[in-house]
Structure to design on (1410 residues):
């Protein structure tokens, strides 16, 4: 169903007759088809006018009902004929069900056996069985929706009607909602738990219960009571109602009214139950002899009439004249004199109130001229109070016009304000206050409306009541004020509102407890903070002498204890037994609390009234760790020194990290030496001959083209910027060939050996002359080492990042080098789920650009002696445009001769580094004596830790507490570890597979191990195509390390992969030295029966190579995946298996389908090409999708800040082994889709290719299951794409073309008022912009809940808004094709649909858990 209904006038086809019934937003009328004369029912559904309106039915709900009705065809279910639509309504033409309700029909019988009842129930079950077989849940099964097709037939047929709440159940996604009729809903609905088909079976149980007894099992006097009964499953088989009911019938009901949906009978179980399908004659006879309680059932049917909104008028007219005459008399009687008919009226009124049925209530009260509307129900509650609890102001007005008193109380003394406050109805409270309803009325327990609102956490109600002068200090019978209620239940927002209203924060209850004591005992640290902020007495005690600290310790509330101690709570105060908080903690054996109290200088020797010290109590209960701790603290006055170690000093952090990036030969090492040295350095400055630039810069792959076979050439010279008339199928034409040549360092292969070159990451502590101390991390420009950079390049927000590039290169090459390294920093920065205003990065990395070799490039000098680079301004502008939102880039480009240590240019760089260093250190925490102790202890720890310098944070905490300071907490040590990380002393490694692992000696891994393992001097692989190494060869590269543990570390870092079938072999893709062009696809004998397809994954925003050796990591993951697919295969040294690797390539074979994975376009794209036999179209698609998923998962985990898109390869040109190959971009598909085309023009080949062949190998089953570009839901947009839209649309636009107008165009005007209130122009508050959420993100999040929220609609709205830039970005970044492979049988084709790309099967945690 596409949501488009027949727009023609329904009356042209049908003659509309009398009304058959009506609901809140629908009217059902009889109609007759003008041509055939057949009778039908026309259901006129009022459409909701706008998204914010509550009147009418939403388009989404109408379409869901229609889609379900179109899908079902069963004798016991109403059928849909057709659907019309006009401006205000949708009209469903339905089968005419004219026999009335089943219960009305049965109520007219004089007697009814259970056997007869089961005949009707069996029809209901048959209908439900059909629905459940299609995974459809009705969710509103009740007597009103069980109808008869024709009541005069000998065997009337049941019809289930009203599918307004029905849903198709998706077992892969939890569905929760609160809807339905309270009397019949299942407990999982009431408790807002995941819903399924089981909810219908509960309703069947309730219907059966009513049918047999005439009683409703859970019905209460109001909606809340009914729902409470349902949730508690509070029902019994009362003898008054079930005296004639068989045991089988009760068993049938009992098996349905089960709270746990999993234990409830299914529809299949129900149909096989012996009450429905007797297994023997005795069971059949029992059913025949048992009867329905017709007397009670008739009364139930009559009572139910009163609460049916569509028939209230006729029901009132059917009241007997004698009843009406009695109603016209004075009925101001007490409960015990009300006869059954008067109770009947009260129940009708209450049901009308609970159902928000204003018209029905008006009609009902209009027929009762002198009825006393103020008389209470049997629980003592007048109707006005029930209406106030339901929050319907219209009903309150109806009741008041009938004479309801605004000041009425229930039998407990509560008034309407109390009821409205309890249920959170602020608008109702506002109305009641205007009508002079008293605010501070106390019920019999002394509670006010503020008490009940605080107890239920209704912060809006509390705030409103406080603003209209409700008294926040009125105490109830237990002497508790509303603040006690909030403190007990943990509602911090309520507590803050009461404190701000002037509530007495030190008020005590009968037990002597203040709100602070209550919150401390309950563990609500945010409330404790609020109360202390509002001057709560920290030393206040209860009647037993317990302070807040005592109670928090007794209840083991560690966070509260730390909070109270932080605010200088008296830790040595004794209770009536003489116990301090330390006594209690020692007796309970709570070591963290003992440590915290001792750290606050508690008196260790203070005895209680029994003469026992805290240590005595710990010893008596054998809490040895505590005894040991206290003993240490008593020795030589160590306690004060331990405490002193935790106190911050005036000393600032001594050093931060300085990281240097740049291609090989950029001058990183030279610049570092210049920065370190003083004036004497200039006299010994090393000069370079101009002719050595060729050895310093490896030649570009484009200029030294290897002999490449045409079929899989990675380089397409001259075709990267193909420009065609209709569309651009490749990269943006503005990019020049020169840019492409420099972006990828990965194609230059392994550089020749250079003893002077930096290997991996060179780490040293250095003092930069005139600046200060740094931990310098110099990252090698050699691409073989880049696969290890993701853990270290962007792991510290306090570091300064220098990016160097040589001015000897052309301008495009310079820009390319800068873009590569800055893109790496950006890509390694994970995005935050909560997007702030403008898509800003809250703490961006600091980057400084340095241009070297100015002397060799002949850059002129200015009069002041500085180099003057004419392209400086243009280059900085371009770089800031690309990365200004993600990185903190210095305003100046530093142009210099890196070897001239005393030049003005180097001095200016030193000054700038000094400014940056001072700013960073000012934000860092001061150094504590503990940090200094750890710095001194680190060398010994490194020595003790053995060959592998890894340690878990937990082990680190334990070692520090055992050996250095027993009082330090884990949170404190985490911050100390972070400080040591910032200083470069240790490195905290974090990823999906590595959590809280400390690298005690970064030089060991980054310089020694990786520098040797990945060095160009490493031995050749024993296989010419795979880079395979024997275990002993790896051991030889790192002789001092435990090779097994080392390989687990490298495996977790995606640097190598162990062969599961041959553990003695290790794959290290970064060391592959051989080209693999002979692995290309060649023409096959069965070429005509082969199908081809492929995808190219490319960065969306910046045309640059993938950083961090991504392709090497992908090869590692492909090896793992291949091993996982066929782990049982025996492997040997010479076994090819199902995967082959070569430089920049891999080939995977699985079940007759082949995939080639290539690094192409100078490292700017990963290409996945797949071919298989014509009979394996689904398998081919599944393999392609699997490898794409592996690659995208790897990208998400390794480069979380890099946005990529799928481009699609021409299947025809892949088949023809054509080079270059046509690339179809997302915008090509979307533009064609908008023009209602289903194919694209291959401008190279001069023919058209269908979407199906490009996207799904021509597999119709997969293609039909997929969603194409414009239909992809907005919720599927990647987080990075949404953040980019926020950057475009958040800032206020002078012409209003920003998120505000977009919100109004999308029908979400309420968001405009909500998010425009920060400042008059909608910009974030200038003092704290990072705290302001992005309004565009909120808009997209809210709109994504709407059914029409697709990428295509969003693009249209953006173009209407005049924001072509945002629409064009979506064209580049949106997914083209989304399909659930498992839904089309992909899982059965031999592949797992996804792989944990980027996630190792080994964990570093296993290495350090010794």
């Amino acid at each position: 169903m596409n949501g488009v209904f027949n727009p023609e006038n329904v009356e042209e086809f049908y003659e509309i007759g009398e009304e058959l019934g009506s609901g809140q937003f629908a009217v059902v009328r009889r109609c007759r088809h003008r041509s055939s004369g057949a009778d039908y029912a026309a259901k006129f559904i009022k459409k909701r006018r706008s998204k914010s309106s509550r009147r009418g039915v939403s388009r989404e709900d109408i379409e869901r009902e229609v889609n379900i009705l179109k899908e079902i065809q069963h004798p016991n279910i109403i059928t849909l004929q057709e659907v019309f639509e006009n401006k205000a309504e949708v009209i469903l033409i339905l089968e005419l069900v004219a026999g009335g309700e089943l219960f009305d029909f049965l109520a007219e019988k004089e007697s009814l056996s259970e056997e007869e009842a089961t005949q009707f129930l069996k029809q209901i079950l048959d209908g439900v069985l059909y629905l459940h077989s299609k995974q459809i849940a009705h969710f509103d099964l009740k007597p009103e929706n069980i109808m008869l097709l024709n009541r005069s037939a000998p065997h009337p047929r049941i019809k289930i009607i009203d599918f307004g709440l029905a849903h198709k159940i998706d077992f892969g996604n939890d569905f929760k909602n609160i809807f339905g009729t309270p009397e019949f809903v299942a407990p999982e609905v009431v408790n807002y738990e995941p819903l399924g088909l089981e909810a219908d079976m509960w309703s069947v149980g309730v219907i059966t219960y009513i049918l047999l007894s005439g009683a409703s099992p859970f019905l209460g006097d109001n909606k809340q009571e009914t729902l409470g009964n349902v949730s508690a499953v509070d029902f019994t088989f009362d003898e008054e109602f079930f005296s004639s009911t068989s045991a089988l019938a009760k068993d049938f009901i009992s098996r349905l009214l089960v709270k746990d949906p999993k234990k409830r009978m299914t529809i299949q179980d129900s149909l096989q139950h012996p009450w429905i399908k007797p297994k023997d004659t005795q069971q059949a006879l029992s059913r025949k002899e048992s009867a329905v309680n017709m007397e009670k059932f008739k009364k139930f049917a009559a009572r139910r009439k009163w609460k049916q909104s569509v028939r209230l008028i006729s029901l009132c007219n059917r009241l007997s004249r004698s009843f009406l005459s009695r109603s016209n008399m004075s009925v101001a009687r007490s409960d015990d004199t009300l006869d059954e008919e008067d109770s009947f009226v009260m129940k009708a009124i209450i049901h009308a109130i609970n159902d928000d049925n204003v018209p029905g209530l008006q009609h009902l009260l209009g027929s009762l001229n002198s009825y006393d509307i103020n008389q209470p129900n049997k629980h003592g509650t007048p109707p006005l109070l029930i209406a106030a609890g339901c929050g319907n102001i219209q009903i309150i007005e109806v009741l008041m016009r009938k004479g309801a008193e605004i000041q009425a109380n229930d039998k407990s003394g509560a008034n309407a304000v109390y009821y409205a406050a309890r249920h959170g109805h602020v608008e109702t409270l506002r109305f009641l206050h205007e009508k002079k309803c008293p605010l501070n009325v106390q019920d019999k327990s002394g509670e006010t409306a503020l008490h009940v609102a605080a107890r239920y956490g209704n912060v809006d109600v509390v705030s409103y009541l406080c603003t209209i002068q409700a008294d926040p200090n009125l105490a109830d019978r237990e002497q508790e004020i509303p603040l006690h209620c909030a403190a007990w239940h943990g509602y911090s927002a309520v507590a803050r509102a009461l404190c701000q209203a002037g509530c007495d924060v030190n008020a005590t209850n009968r037990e002597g407890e203040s709100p602070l004591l209550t919150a401390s005992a309950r563990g609500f640290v945010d409330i404790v903070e609020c109360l202390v902020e509002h001057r709560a007495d920290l030393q206040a005690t209860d009647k037993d002498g317990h302070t807040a600290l005592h109670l928090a310790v007794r209840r083991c509330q560690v966070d509260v204890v730390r909070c109270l101690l932080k605010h200088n709570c008296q830790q040595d105060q004794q209770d009536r037994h003489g116990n301090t908080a330390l006594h209690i903690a020692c007796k309970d054996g709570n070591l963290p609390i003992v440590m915290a109290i001792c750290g606050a200088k508690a008196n260790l020797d203070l005895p209680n009234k029994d003469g026992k010290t805290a240590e005595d109590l710990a010893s008596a209960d054998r809490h040895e760790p505590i005894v040991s701790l206290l003993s240490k603290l008593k020795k030589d006055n160590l306690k004060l020194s331990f405490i002193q170690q935790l106190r911050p000093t005036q000393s600032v952090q001594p050093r931060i990290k300085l990281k240097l990036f740049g291609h090989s030969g950029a001058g990183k090492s030279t610049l570092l030496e210049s920065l370190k040295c003083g004036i004497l350095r200039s006299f010994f400055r090393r000069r370079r001959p101009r002719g050595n630039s060729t050895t310093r810069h490896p030649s570009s792959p484009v200029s030294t083209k290897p002999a490449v076979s045409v079929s899989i050439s990675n380089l397409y010279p001259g075709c990267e910027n193909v420009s065609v008339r209709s569309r651009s199928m490749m990269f943006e034409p503005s990019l020049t060939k020169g840019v492409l040549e420099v972006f990828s360092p990965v194609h230059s292969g392994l550089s020749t050996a250079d003893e002077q070159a930096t290997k991996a990451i060179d780490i040293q502590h250095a003092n930069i002359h005139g600046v200060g101390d740094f931990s310098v991390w110099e990252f090698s420009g050699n691409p073989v080492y880049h696969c290890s950079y993701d853990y270290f390049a962007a792991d510290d927000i306090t570091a300064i990042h220098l990016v160097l590039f040589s001015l000897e290169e052309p301008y495009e090459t310079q820009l390319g080098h800068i873009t590569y390294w800055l893109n790496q920093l950006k890509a390694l920065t994970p995005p935050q789920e909560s997007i702030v205003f403008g898509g800003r990065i809250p703490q961006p990395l600091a980057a400084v650009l340095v241009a070297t070799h100015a002397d060799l490039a002949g850059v002129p000098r200015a009069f002041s002696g500085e180099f003057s680079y004419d392209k400086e301004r243009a280059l900085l502008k371009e770089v800031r445009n690309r990365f200004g939102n993600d990185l903190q880039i210095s305003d100046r480009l530093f142009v210099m001769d890196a070897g001239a240590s005393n030049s003005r240019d180097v001095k200016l760089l030193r000054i700038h580094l000094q400014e940056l260093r001072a700013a960073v250190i000012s934000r860092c925490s001061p150094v504590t004596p503990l940090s200094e102790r750890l710095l001194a202890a680190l060398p010994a720890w490194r020595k003790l830790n053995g060959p592998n310098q890894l340690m878990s944070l937990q082990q680190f905490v334990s070692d520090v507490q055992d050996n250095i300071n027993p009082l330090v907490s884990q949170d404190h040590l985490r911050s100390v570890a972070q400080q040591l990380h910032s200083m470069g002393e240790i490195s905290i490694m974090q990823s999906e597979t590595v959590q809280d692992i400390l690298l005690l000696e970064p030089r060991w891994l980054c310089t020694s191990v990786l520098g040797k393992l990945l060095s160009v001097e490493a031995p050749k692989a024993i296989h010419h195509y795979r880079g395979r190494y024997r275990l002993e060869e790896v051991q030889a590269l790192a002789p001092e390390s435990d090779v097994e543990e080392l390989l687990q570390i490298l495996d977790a870092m995606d640097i190598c992969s162990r062969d599961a079938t041959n553990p003695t072999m290790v794959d290290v893709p970064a060391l592959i030295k051989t080209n693999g062009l002979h692995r290309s696809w060649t023409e096959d004998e069965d070429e005509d029966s082969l199908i081809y397809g492929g995808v190219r994954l490319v960065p969306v925003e910046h045309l640059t190579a993938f950083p961090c050796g991504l392709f090497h990591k992908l090869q590692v993951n492909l090896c793992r995946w291949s091993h996982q697919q066929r782990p049982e295969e025996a492997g040997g040294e010479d076994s090819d298996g199902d995967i082959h690797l070569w430089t920049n390539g891999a080939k995977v074979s699985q079940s007759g389908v082949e995939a080639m994975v290539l690094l192409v376009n100078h490292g700017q794209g990963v290409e996945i090409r797949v071919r298989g036999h014509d009979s394996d179209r689904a398998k081919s698609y599944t393999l392609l999708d699997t490898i794409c998923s592996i690659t995208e998962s790897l990208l998400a985990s390794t480069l979380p800040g890099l946005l990529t898109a799928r481009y699609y390869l021409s299947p025809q040109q892949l088949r023809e082994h054509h080079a270059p190959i046509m690339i179809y971009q997302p915008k090509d598909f979307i533009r064609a889709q908008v023009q209602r085309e289903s194919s694209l023009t291959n401008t190279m080949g001069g023919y058209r290719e269908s979407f199906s062949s490009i996207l799904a190998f021509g597999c119709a089953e997969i293609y039909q299951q997929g969603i194409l570009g414009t239909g992809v839901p907005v919720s599927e947009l990647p987080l990075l794409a949404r953040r980019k839209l926020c950057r475009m649309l958040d800032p206020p636009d002078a012409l209003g073309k920003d998120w505000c107008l977009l919100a109004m165009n999308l029908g979400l005007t309420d968001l405009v008022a909500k998010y425009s209130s920060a400042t008059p122009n909608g910009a974030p508050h200038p003092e704290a912009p990072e705290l302001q959420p992005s309004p565009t993100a909120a808009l997209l999040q809210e709109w994504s809940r709407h059914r029409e929220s697709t990428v295509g609609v969003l693009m249209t709205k953006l173009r209407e808004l005049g924001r072509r830039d945002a629409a064009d970005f979506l064209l580049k970044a949106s997914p083209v094709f989304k399909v659930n492979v498992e839904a089309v049988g992909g899982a059965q084709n031999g592949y797992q649909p996804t792989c944990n790309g980027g996630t190792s099967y080994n964990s570093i945690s296993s290495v350090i858990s010794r």
